[in-house]
Each structure stands twice: as structure tokens, then as C-alpha cells.
Amino acid sequence: MKMILISGRSGSGKSSALHALEDCGFYCIDNLPRPLLTDLIKNIANHVEYENTAVSIDVRNFSGDSDQLNNLLAALTEYNIEHQIIFLDSCEDILVKRYNASRRKHPLTSEQRSLREAIQKDKELLTPLMDAADLVVDTSNMSIHDLRDLIRNRITVHQSHEVSLLIQSFGFKYGVPTDSDLMFDVRCLPNPYWEPSLRNFNGKDPEIAEFLSHHDSSKKMLADIQGFIEYWVPMYKKSGRAYITISIGCTGGCHRSVYIAEQLTKYFNTLYSEVHLKHIQL
């Protein structure tokens, strides 16, 4: 049996993630009261119809107590239920915009606590869950469709014991993705942006690939990052990690980081069966 615990700050997309799992055949429960979580585990343990279950956990049913989380995980282990914790997050400004646009009330707001303060308190209370998560997803730059695709590709497809790699490019000037396990800065490489004839291309185009591949620094950077990942991913796998997110950053996230991410993806597709590619700024 398998249970996925979906958690994250309010407004980060937990409901959308739960809907995606439901579409993939999971029995989904949104915001089950905390005292009933252990009872749920006991009752589904021997029922085939609940073989794949997903439960949403937020500040309404988690008080931020680490012991509470440990007891929950212990119960899952006791009943031989395979489990994963997926934590969704988003930057504070994006969460504020989402709440203002939806005109919904944050569960922690009150006369004494503003929306921004509630969002900050939300993160504080959920820190133990984020620290224990098997996969942290930054939804700041995701649409609902992007999030559902990610859930389908990285979670529901991930049924083997193979490690799942996500290689993503981004631009430092837009902020760093918070879901990174490994991050590499390639801003020291020659920048095609300063070549007028190349500015309107991106790192997926052959013109940019040709430009960067002719520089020894690009070749060396690619080889070093590739070697680091190739050596350390098996170590992460041995420690029980099922998901690894590798972020490659340049200034704008359109040329150098995209090129390096594309090349890494081509290489690691020959070594692993679950390699995903994402360009945040494209």
C-alpha cells in the first residue's frame, strides 16, 4: 500500500496537486482532522480499494509539533504502508497576490494577524513537514497545468525504486528556486546575450549551442557539473532519496543555464530512466 502526504503553505497548490493524484487513481482526502489520521491508517491498511491514498495536511490539522509528525510516520511504518511526503511552497509575494486575487481568507488570519504575517506563521508551523519531505516543489512560477503535469510525471509515474531527476534552468535575477537540492551557477560562462546576433535565441537553439560549445570554459563547466552529479546521485539514492532537483542558473535564465541543462539532460537520460527537464524562464 502507498500513502502520499501532500503538505505546504496555504495557497501553494495543495488542492490542485490532490486533484491531479485523484485523476491518476489515488483515493484522496483533503484536510482530514488530525485525530483521525491515525485511525485512517489503521482502517485502510488491509483494504485493497485504498491501495493508493493521498492525504492533504496543512496548518488546520498540523500544529507544528515534531512529535506529532513522528507518531504519524511511525504508524505508517507499523502498518507497512509505503509513504512519501510532498511539500509545496511558493514565495511570499506570490502567495499574497494569489490570496488577494482569489479574495479567500487565509486560515491563520485574524484581527490581530495580517495576511503576510499569517503566511509567515504558516511556514513556521509547517517547517518540520518541509524538513521531512521527500520532494519539495516551488510553485511560484507554475500554472495549475504545470503543477498537475509535475505531479503526474514525478510522483504517479514514479513506481520503481529508480531515482527521479529534475534538471531545471533559471535566472538569478528572478530569484532562486526554493526546491533545489543541488544548485550550480554558470554566470561565469561567456554570455550570448551580449552578441547582438544571438540575443533573441535561447539555449535550446543550435546557434547558442554552437557559440557556447566553442568555449573551453563551457566544456569544462559542463564536464565538472556532469561528473559531480554522476558521482553523488548514487550516494543520495543509497541514503533513501527518491527525488533530486538540480538547478542551473545564469543571469536571465535564457541562454547559458538552458544550454547546460539541455546537455545534462541528454547525458543523464542515458543513465537513468526518470530524468525530467524544466526551463523556468522560457
From TrEMBL:
GTP binds at residues 58-61. ATP binds at residues 8-15. Residues 164-280 form the RapZ C-terminal domain. Residues 1-156 form the RapZ-like N-terminal domain. InterPro entries: P-loop_NTPase, RapZ-like, RapZ-like_N, RapZ_C. It comes from the Bacteria. Keywords: ATP-binding, GTP-binding, Nucleotide-binding. Coiled coil: none annotated. HAMAP family: RapZ_like. PANTHER family: RNASE ADAPTER PROTEIN RAPZ. NCBIfam families: PRK05416.1. This is RNase adapter RapZ. It comes from Litoribacillus peritrichatus.
